[in-house]
Every structure is written in structure tokens, then in C-alpha cells.
Amino acid sequence: MMLRVMFKRLLATSPRYSHFLFGILCGWIVSRVMYFWSTTGSLYLESSGWITGTDHPPAINLTERVRVLCWVMTTPANHRDKVVHIKATWGPRCNKLLIMSSMADPEIDSIALPVEEGRENLWNKTREAFRYIYEHHVEEYDWFFKADDDTYVVVENLRYFLYPYSPELPIFFGSKFRYPQYVKQGYFSGGAGYVLSREAVRRFYEQALQDEERCSVVFETEDLQMGRCMESVNVTAGDSRDAFGRKRFLPFDPAAHLANSDTEDPGYWYNEYSYYKPFSGKNCCSDFAISFHYIPGYNMRMMDYLIYDLHAWGSSYRYPPLPPTKTPEEAMAVAEAYPIKTVQTTAESSTHTPSTETMEETFSSFKP
User: Fold this and answer.
1) Ordered structural domains, the chain, with CATH
2) Does the pTM exceed 0.85?
């Protein structure tokens, strides 16, 4: 009605003022459109799927909703070179940070586990670390993340990923590798870190640790043995990839994933042992990547700066919506491994259980 009246008045006005009044009318229309856009337009685009997220954090406090205990496996030789950098960067973002070593060091507040040092003792150090966690903290936190002392973790992305999962589900996540002759459902790279639900920790302590036939004390390859123990007590090795199939837990440093052309070779060991197809280049990693491995101590400071402090002028970050809570069936559904032809990938292809020596030789390329 208002527009009609103004249009009639404009026609009745002398030509001397018609252009002036027409400009005022156009300006008023543009201002109303801009006001409507600022109040409802972005909401429409978000609801219709054109854009997602908002410029503001969600009302839910993920730090309290997804309580994460992080523990770092280290050795006294690395207390000053590596652990101090973890404590100065990503470590305090966990709800609780435990440093597991063989020596109590007040400077880094490390816990002395009753295990000798050496690569051959990594598995038993992991066993003792989870024993300590169960006996002291299992009811206080929801998820329990294991990292090496050269692992960098974006804790906020870890919480964002874990939010839809119940910690009472028997499940754990990480960078999934395959060795079907030994563990059919896959296992997780120790260097990229892996995270156990509260129920997974319970089963590991109450069932696996009490049965050496299920969970050997002599096997040396820590991450593979962890996968076998979890499988023996029906803890699911979950799928942590994003909607585009990109990994969130990464077993190398960012440069290796971004620029490593070896992944184009089907015979490259990472392609053979990766449970899901790995990617390189800009599409290598999820936008919400959680962890990277082989990060020297001083580079943790650089990672922290690049992620949390460096900004490109004019760019803005949008918080994605929190994913809906998963039902147990949705949470435990895991995609099959991608097919490869360069190695035997089925349990039927091997009629023997690999010895410690065989496994040490197989995984020698994993060592730093």
C-alpha cells in the first residue's frame, strides 16, 4: 500500500522533482532489502543448505560435554625436548593430561610406570598406562586419548568428532591400518594417536588385561597388539573419516600428507596398510583433522601458532553445526576396507600367526 501511494505521488509531481523522488524511493527499497537480508537471509541460506554453520560458537560447552583425558607416552630422554612443548601447546586443552614415563619428573609432572624403557617395552607401557587410568580416572572422563610425544592434537576437533558418540559404547577411533591375518577389523596407528571410550577402557582392563591368551604381554608391536586386544573383547574399531572420506587422524606430519607423491604408487607401504584409501595433496586431510605424527617439539609451537593465532585478513571462520547424536547401530556401523591388489588382505590368505620377529620386520618401515 505504501509503495502504491508513493508511486502515485511521484507521477503527480512535476518532472523537475521526479528523478529526485525516484532516487529516494529506490534507496528506501534497497535499505529494506538489506535489512531483511541481515535478519533472515543468512538463516534461509543455512536452512536451505547453501551455507552451513554460524560465526558464533554453539551454545553447548563441548569441553564439559565431551570430557577427554589425554595421556602421552614418553621416555626420560624426551622430557625436555618434546614433552615440555606438548605442555605448552595442545596438552592443556584436554580436560586432563597425563605424562606416562618410566621416571617421575616434577618439571613435567610425569608418572613413573613400572616398565623399563626401550621399544620392546612400548606395549607393556601402554598396558600399564591404561591400568593406571582405569584405577584412578575411568569414571571422571568420557574418552581417553593416547598419543606419542611427537603427536600434535587439535583437541577441539577431537571433541567435535566425538560429540555424537556415547562413551558407553564399546568403540575406539584412530588412523586405521589393516593386518587381517592378525586382527580382522583393523587397528590404529600408535603415532597418530587413538581414543577409547569409557566402555572400551573398562573392557580392556576388566577383560583383556586379565586374560593373556586374549591379550599377550610379550608382543612388542604396541598399536597392532592393542587392536587385537580390543577385537578380542568386542570393541569396535570405528570409522573416523569425514563425509568426503578424508582422514582425521594422520600418521605423518602435514607436509608429508600434503606433498607426498608416494601415495600415488599402489605398492607404497602406506597404501597397502591403510584400511581406507589414503589421499595426498590438498585433499589429503579433513578440514577438521585431529592429529598429526612426527612433529618435533619446536614444531608444536609452530603448529599452535598457525592453527590458533595466524589469520588471513578478510577471511572468516564458520562454526559447523554439531552433528546429531548417533544411535548405537549408527555408531557401530563401519565401512569395509578399500580393495588393493598388492598384498594379501584376507585372513584366509595366511594360515599362520606372525611371530614377533616377522612383525618387527614387517613394521620396520613404520619406525621413525
Assistant:
1) 62-311 (3.90.550)
2) no
110-133 pLDDT per residue, tens:
999 988 877 778 888 999 999 999
191, 174 in Cβ contact below 8 A? no
Dig out the grid coordinates for 275 from the structure: 584400511
C-alpha cell at 204: 580392556
Secondary structure string (H, E, C) spanning the chain: CHHHHHHHHHHHCCHHHHHHHHHHHHHHHHHHHHHHHHHHHHHHHHHHCCCCCECCCCCCCHHHHCCEEEEEECCHHHHHHHHHHHHHCCHHHCCEEEEEECCCCCCCCEEECCCCCCHHHHHHHHHHHHHHHHHHHCCCCCEEEEEECCCEECHHHHHHHHCCCCCCCCEEEECEEEECCCEEEEEECCCCCEEEEHHHHHHHHHHHCCCCCCCCCCCCCHHHHHHHHHHHCCCEECCCCCCCCCECECCCCHHHHHHCHHHHCCCCHHHHHECCCCCCHHHCECCCCCEECCCCHHHHHHHHHHHHCCCCCCCCCCECCCCCCCCHHHHHCCCCCCCCCCCCCCHHHCCCCCCHHHHHHHHHHHCC
For 193, half-sphere exposure in the C-beta direction (CA atoms, 13 angstrom radius) is 33
Q: How many CB atoms lie within 10 A of CB 364?
A: 8
Q: Which pLDDT tens digit goes with each residue over 69-87?
A: 999 999 999 899 999 999 9
Nearest residue to 290 (alpha-carbon basis) of 302, 277, 303: 303
Q: For the CA atoms of 228, 229, 232, 236, what is the dihedral angle to 10 degrees?
A: -80
Which residues, 6 or more positions from 134, have their beta carbon under 8 angstroms from its beta carbon? 201, 202, 204, 205
